[in-house]
Amino acid sequence: MAASDLAALDKPQQADLDRCVHCGLCLNACPTYRELHVEMDSPRGRIYQMVQVSGGAPISPSYLEHIELCLACRGCETACPSGVQYGRLVEAARAEIETKIRRPWRERIVRWLVFRKLLPSRLNLEIAGALLYFYQASGLKALVSMLGFLPARLREVETLAPEIETPFFFAYYGKTLPAEAERRYRVAFLGGCIANVSFARLNEATVRVLRKNGCEVSIPAAQACCGALHVHAGIRDEARKLARRNIDALINGGFDAIITNAGGCGSTLKEYWELLEYDPEYAEKARQFSTSVKDINEFLASIELNPNLRSLPITVTYQDSCHLAHGQKIRSAPRKLLTSVPGLQLREMQLSDLCCGSAGIYNVVHTGMAMSLLKKKMASVNATGAPVIAASNPGCMLQLRAGVSRFGRGQRVAHVVEILDEAYRGDEASAATKPVK
Ligand code: SF4
Ligand code: SF4
To answer: Which of 27, 40, 70, 362 to mutate to test the pocket of ligand 2 (most atoms within 8 A of CB)?
Structure first.
């Protein structure tokens, strides 16, 4: 299909819009509506605006503002009794905006650099990671902060930037690591994009836990960024290129599962079939690929878990990742894994599936809204008294760490798989589970 024909389909489809009966039952599940109490910043209001645009109304600055302020968290999808696929709608609305609106030149340059040059390229990620590591580890960051060189806005964004972890996980690309003891499964692991340089230790822990559970783990060298951030930003042409690269890299590997440890990535990987549904060459391959993708929680909870877990006498509260809970409908698996650790007590927070404000790069672009949501999230966390916050998505972990430093009580933020890894290793002083103070 020609690019122009695809662009015509990259907009909210009438059949999807028609499913909304405007009942408003989703309003209370929407973080932006709960904050602002503005109908146009509710799911129903946003769908109403999409209907107007679909009927020929112009894409106005106001439309842009309300669609962009949406977190694409899909909380409304869970709440909707009519089965409105809001995630699909908002992604399509953003794709339409992308093809029809010319953004200011500064924004265009930043988006081109981030989405088309940085995220798809291993080399550029390694260069950016090395530069950022030098900035953070050499004392330059501390000096800049002491001298107050950065403008206020950049200072705020800097507090949300990930810590770079060397050596990068890219070092594992192209390797196959054997199962510990008897091999029960052959799986492929996707390292992500930024996670390769900022969550390298989490990725290693994921591989260790898989191997402990009888998995031979391949980390294909030709894999690429999954394209989730592109899909959320409406940049579907680049997302499609990345999807094809991943399909080509993995489809013929004969794997029992393709594993990701990021809820946000998993959701997009499982929806490659939608992204490529009009691509005659890839549509069927994308369907096959999507059915093989498993979130790490989902996969581990579905197999007979290696029971050699040592006791971790800690209290943990779990923050649902929006794209795991609302996008993939996976809620019980991470809880099942956490409670399988002897000695671990799971203490639920209020509204654990309400977005923490991370939402990909949302916290960088809409920092004010993201921080309001984070403040409330941390109040729920603090009320549990748990010294550890478990999550299942690196982006949420970064946001929650920022939340701990601004509004928290020294809690430690860890991925579910890191907690399992520590229980398998039986570390005396466990890094992820030891409170900061
Ligand atoms: S999205 Fe669903 S819950 Fe929300 S107004 Fe429409 S039909 Fe009702
Ligand atoms: S995706 Fe999230 S922020 Fe957007 S309308 Fe739905 S509930 Fe609200």
So the answer is: 70
Least confident of 249-253, 273-277, 333-337, 365-369: 365-369
Distance 42 CA to ligand 2 centre (A): 7
Length reported for the chain? 437
**Short-list 428, 435, 437, CA closest to 412:** 435
Report the predicted TM-score, pTM, of the whole model to 2 decimal places: 0.93
Give 343's pLDDT tier (boundaries 50, 70, 90): very high
What gap in Å lies between CA 333 and CA 132, rounded to an integer? 35
- The residue nearest atom 5 of ligand 2, judged by CA position, is 43
CA atoms within 13 A on the CB side of 22: 9
The pair phi, psi for residue 48, each rounded to 5°, is -60, -45
The pair phi, psi for residue 396, each rounded to 5°, is -65, -40
9-67 tens-digit pLDDT: 899 999 999 999 999 999 999 999 999 999 999 999 999 999 999 999 999 999 999 99
Give the position, in ligand 1's atom list, of the atom nearest the Cα of 24: 5
Say if ligand 1 is within 6 A of residue 209 CB: no
Q: Is residue 76 within 6 Å of ligand 1 at its C-beta? A: yes
pLDDT at 432 over 50: no
Name the percent of the chain lying above pLDDT 70: 96
Cβ of 74 less than 6 Å from ligand 2 = yes
Tokens for 162, please give them: 């990930």
Whether 6 shows a pLDDT value over 70: the answer reads no
Q: Is 23 in the pocket of ligand 1 (CB under 6 A)?
A: yes
Which pLDDT value is given to residue 320?
98
Rounded to the nearest 10°, the torsion over CA 204, 246, 112, 155 is -20
Mean pLDDT, the chain, as a whole number? 93
Q: Which residues of 153-187 are buried (b: 16+ CB within 10 A; e: fewer)?
A: eeebeeebebebbeebbbebeeeebebbeeeebbb
Side chain identity at 328, as an amino acid letter?
Q
